[in-house]
Amino acid sequence: MSAPADNPILLRFGPFRLDLQACELRKGETLLHLAPQPCKVLGLLASRPHKVFTRQEIQQEIWHGETFVDFEQGLNVAVRQIRAALCDDAETPRYIETLPRRGYRFIAEVDGQPAAVASAPLAPPEALRPSSFRRPLALAVSLALVVVAAVLVWRMGRIPRRTPLTHIQSLAVLPLENLSHDPEQEYFADGMTDELITDLAKIHALRVISRNSMMQYKGKHKPTPQIARELNVDALVEGTVMRSGDRVRITAQLIEAPNDRHLWAETYEGDLRNILALQGEVAAAIAKEVKLKLSAQEEIHLANARPVNPEAHEAYLRGQYRLHGMAAEATDTLKSQSIEKAIDYFQQALNRDPNDALAYSGLADAYSDLSTQYRAPLEVMPKAKAAAIRAIELDDTLAEAHVSLGYVALTFDWDWVRAEHEFRRALELNPSLPRAHAGYAEYLLFKLGRADEAIQELQRAYAVDPLLPIAHGDLAWLSFLARRYKESIDTAERFGHDDHIQALSYAELGRRDQALAAADRAVSSTRNPVTLSKIAAAYALAGRADKARAMLPGIEGSARERYVCGFNVACVYSVLGDKDQAFAWLAKAYRDRSD
């Protein structure tokens, strides 16, 4: 932005000096790093202090009404960079104030110096005038000092200064905004978010919040410090994604979360065939920006992304959207239908590219998710195993495929050695993968009986998925199975659900009234036969065998229409003292290879 001749071109506010003509911002004599576009925005705001500039006015002045440019994102980035340079705070601003739904206002006092004065040479001091050559030694010393000072100022001005970064050990990737504003493209934006999270999670020095928790912020606009507190992270990554045909543009910015300080922003653009490499570039740039030294293996993982078949990858992303996009409160029927649709998409991806390791990994996840809750293990777990093995054959670095194979080994093949190997390999590849922590926790408890270690491992899953941890492993249920009933109750209460587990734990502790109250709450909120079996067992343990027996016909009726895990039904009969029926249902669970 160039200033008219009759307008100030040198603005002073606080310790800062903004030269509009040179587009330079200085603090004292130190030249601060500020890109041209943010500098123009700052110049516009500071040239009219206390005036509210709407976003539309800023667009007309700086972006000249161009719609091709990503104005909204560009302005957000510009304001963050300005605040970073001024060490300003969005919540308690000293310079740039945000007025929600109105615009921005420069609130500090500004002194302006016109062009004629700013550009005029300084009048020489008396000692330097030709008529004053009476003290040549003093003059020589003065000139030498001026030259030295000038050189120092020049050198200082050449070195961009930057506030030292807080050591960043944890971050979260907010859902990337879909700039196409086409709801049909939401799967693509979510997929890009998921893949960026996966790439960053491969960096062992970072704790990266999982996709499940981050999608809780989709479409919401909470203050950055608040999100950081909710997730317990040091930094946030936010950005946008735009797709046009086979071209993709990703804009990402890194924000130091506690003080909402902008640290870095960049735009990446490329062909859809190279989308995985593009994501790896973004992740590597973020790691570099937060001063993390990547291991040789991590550099290889981020740099060696293979090209993808665009049509196959699109089908894969649609499958992931179906697999993970279903709301937590959705019915069992809707969830199973969504998983089945995800399987269709993964198959479509493999029809287009039979060597797509990601699609095989997604297929393994989907079949594994169907097991026990919706379909019989014998029907789907062999398919999950075959898909996971093929994914690993094609790409041994896919942590998700190792997790799927680990679950098959643990719950279906009962191959303990293989289960431990696969879970450990998954955590080696991606230490921020909650499902890997949950699977390893189950292995530690079920196979080795090491309850302390199992619970610690599941707590690690909760640390990277704090908002939706139940999706990866129920700590309350694991505590109950470890006979830690008080811990089970406390955990269930902390997360506000699992009444049926509270009912069982209260019953085991002999707290009958609380057990019955929890069971009454639970029975009114579910139709799932597996959960109903646990509630019936709780009633029986709490002395209400009549209620337990009244529930059995409905549970057994469901078992004739769909798969129901026989182990849970056996538990009800066991508590009721009906050993014959208990053993019959246990035998069925064994034949079904129930988990």
Keywords:
12% strand, Serine Threonine Protein Phosphatase 5, Tetratricopeptide repeat, 595 residues, Rossmann fold, alpha+beta, five-stranded antiparallel beta sheet, six-stranded mixed beta sheet, 56% helix, Arc Repressor Mutant, subunit A, 14 strands
Please describe what this structure looks like:
A hairpin with a 4-residue loop joins strand 13 and strand 14. Helix 9 runs antiparallel to helix 10 (296-303) and helix 25 (566-576) packs antiparallel against helix 26 (579-591). The strands form three sheets. Strands 9, 10, 11, 12, 13 and 14 form a six-stranded mixed beta sheet that branches. The protein has a five-stranded antiparallel beta sheet with strand order 4-3-2-1-8, with helices on both faces. By secondary structure, the protein is α+β, with helices and mostly antiparallel strands. The chain contains 26 helices and 14 strands. It starts with 7 loop residues before the first strand and ends with a helix. Among the domains are: 8-115, Winged helix-like DNA-binding domain superfamily/Winged helix DNA-binding domain (Arc Repressor Mutant, subunit A), CATH 1.10.10; 170-302, TolB, N-terminal domain (Rossmann fold); 494-595, Serine Threonine Protein Phosphatase 5, Tetratricopeptide repeat (Alpha Horseshoe). The chain has helices at residues 36-47, 55-63, 71-86, 115-119, 136-158, 186-201, 211-214, 224-231, 275-289, 296-303, 310-324, 332-352, 357-370, 377-394, 399-413, 416-429, 434-446, 451-464, 475-481, 485-494, 499-508, 512-523, 529-541, 545-561, 566-576, 579-591, and strands at 8-13, 16-19, 24-27, 30-32, 52-54, 96-99, 103-106, 111-114, 170-173, 177-178, 207-208, 235-244, 247-256, 261-271. The radius of gyration is 31 Å and the shape is elongated.
